[in-house]
Amino acid sequence: MRSPGKTTVAPDVLLTIARLTALKVDGVHSIGSAPRGGKDSKSEAGVVSQVIDDTVDLDIYLVLDKDTNLRLVSREVQAQIARAIEESIGMEAGRINVHVEDVYFPTLTSPAS
Q1: Under 8 Å between Cβ of 98 and 77
Q2: What is the pTM of this model?
Q3: Which domains does the chain have, with CATH numbers?
Q4: Alpha helices in 24-93 (DSSP H)
Q5: Distance between CA 7 and CA 30 in Å, rounded?
Q6: Mean pLDDT for each consecutive 10-residue tract of the chain (113 residues)?
Q7: Ramachandran angles phi, psi of 95, nearest 5°
Q8: By CB atoms within 10 Å of each CB, which of 4, 16, 42, 89 scores lowest?
Q9: According to the model, what pLDDT value does residue 80 have?
């Protein structure tokens, strides 16, 4: 049987999968802003990715909700992104680095006078 061909995944797809997966984790308020990646990496909207030999390394920058355990939420984000990369794309997840940029505290409104 002949091979049907090759499937390639655009770098932006990896970034989108990482962002959407992180936002589904309880305790994640929003995606922060990532610094520019190096020459071999792709960055956009709070995520920097680098692919070497079918292994995906990511840095994701997050704003977490107040009253959450930052370490537990970060580990859950790492696990969920790794799972999504491996199951959705079939690539190996390497380092998934979570950077907590801020903690979200809702603005308290003062009572009407």
Answers
A1: yes
A2: 0.84
A3: 11-104 (3.30.70.1350)
A4: 70-84
A5: 31
A6: 76 92 97 72 80 92 96 98 95 96 82 59
A7: -80, 130
A8: 4
A9: 98
